[in-house]
Amino acid sequence: MRTAAEDSKAAGVTFARRAEERTFTVDGMLQRCWDFAPVPEGSGAANPDGDDAAGRDAAPPIFMVHGFRGDHHGLLRIVEALPGHRVLVPDLPGFGRGEPLPGPHDVGAYAGFVAAALEGGVPGLGSDTVLLGHSFGSIIASKVAAERPELISELALVNPICEPALEGPKGITSKAAELYYLSAARLPERLGMALLQHPAIVRGMSIFMAKTRDPALRRWIHGQHRAYFSAFANRDVVLDAFRASISSTVRDTAAQLDMPVLLIAAERDDLGSVAGQRKLAALIPDAELHILPGVGHLVHYEAPAEAAALITDFLQRRHP
After folding, report:
1. In 3D, which of 211, 316, 209 has the Cα closest to residue 262?
2. What is the C-alpha separation between 277 and 288, in angstroms, rounded?
3. Contact criterion met (CB below 8 Å) for 80 and 304
4. CA dihedral of 142, 144, 147, 153, whole degrees rounded to 10
C-alpha cells in the first residue's frame, strides 16, 4: 500500500512554506489560524523556478476560508503558489482543530468568526487584507464582505456557490446528499458519526468531485479527503454546516459587494454551472469572472497554480 508521502511525490505535490500557528478565542472557544509569512525574494523556497514576484513588501495579506468538511490543509497548494503574500488560513470552528462554537454553526456564526479574526484575533491585519473563500467558504466570505466591507480591500471567490444546491440539473445529487445527512442525524449518535465518517462514503464523494485524469493526482486527492474530510468535532457541527451550505449562496449578498470581486469558477463544477456563475457575476457591481476549463469543484487541488496566477494578476492591477 502506498504511503501519503509516496502519493505526494508521485503527484508532484510539495509544501515548502512554514507557518506560525496562531490561536485566538471566539465566544470563549479556542480557534487556530496558520500564518504564512511572505517568502524572501531569491530564496526559491516556494518557487523552485526562481521567478520571484516584484514588490513583495507591498503585497497585501490574504485571509482564506476553506469549504465544507475541509480544514486549512485543503488550501495549502494555493498558499504555495502565492509566495509573495502573507497568507492566513484558519480551521473553521468545529472543523480540523477549531473548537466548536456554543451555538448553531450557520453562515452567520462563521461570518462572525472570520470578522473576529480580521478585527484583531490575528495580529497585523488591516483594511488592505484580501478575503478569499472556496466553495462553502465563498458564502461565508461574501457575507463578511457585504456586512463588514471596512475589514477588507478585495474579495476572491474560488468555486463560488452560485445557485441553490437543490435546484438545477445537479439537484438530484444534492438531494441524495441531503438524504445521507438526514439519515446520519436520525441515527443514534455513535451510528450517525460512523455513517458520516465512513471511508467508503468519503471515497465516493472524492471520486465524484475529482475531475483530473492524472492517476497520481487523483490518488493524492483521495488521500487528502481520507485524512481531513472527517475531521469535525461532532455530528451537530457537520449537520449544521451542511444545512447552511445547501440553503445559502453567494447570490444572497452579491448586490451588496461594493469592492472588487474576483470569481474563479470551473467548467465542470458539479456545484455551480457556468451559466449560474455568469448570472452571479452580473449581480455583483464590480466582478471579474474567469472559468477554468476541464476542472471541477476541486480547483484548489487540481489547478492551484492557475488560480494563484489569476489572483496575482487581479491584485497587481489594484496594488501596483
Report:
1. 316
2. 11
3. yes
4. -80
C-alpha distances out from residue 149 to 131, 146, 229, 263, Å: 10, 6, 31, 17
Cα gap 258→231, rounded to integer Å: 35
pTM: 0.92
**CA–CA distances in Å: residue 150 to residues 126, 188, 262:** 9, 45, 18
Nearest to 74 by CA among 301, 307, 264, 253: 301
Dihedral sign for Cα 126, 277, 290, 178, please: positive
The whole-number pLDDT of residue 7 equals 72
- Cα–Cα distance, 201 to 245 (Å, whole number): 18
CA distance 58 to 40: 13
Cα angle, residue 94 at apex, residues 89 and 98 outer, rounded to 5°: 45
| Torsion angles phi and psi, residue 209, rounded to 5 | -85, -30
- Nearest CA to 297 out of 277, 312, 280 is that of 277
Quote the CA–CA distance of 65 and 256 in Å, as a whole number. 19
Does position 55 have pLDDT exceeding 70, yes or no? Answer: no
* 130 close to 62: Cβ distance less than 8 angstroms: yes
Task: Give the pLDDT confidence score for residue 149 in this predicted structure.
Answer: 98
pLDDT single digits (tens) 98-148: 999 999 999 999 999 999 999 999 999 999 999 999 999 999 999 999 999
